[in-house]
Design a protein that fits this description.
mainly beta, two-stranded antiparallel sheet
């Protein structure tokens, strides 16, 4: 949502497809860490989720 400015600016994917929102089957992967000179790198690893279709 942040990259598409709330769906107002479509994003172009590497496949050439454009999207404004996540769709069923899309997988989102978040990775993060913090680095500071003189300290160890701290991270939370990988957080992964897949968008499932709505229940009927």
């Amino acid at each position: 949502m942040e990259l598409s400015v709330g769906g107002k600016r479509p994003l172009q994917l590497s496949s050439g497809e454009t999207r404004t929102w996540l769709e069923d089957g899309d997988t989102v992967i978040l990775r993060g860490y913090c680095v500071r000179e003189g300290f160890r790198r701290i991270g939370f690893g990988e957080c992964r989720g897949t968008v499932l279709p709505a229940r009927t």
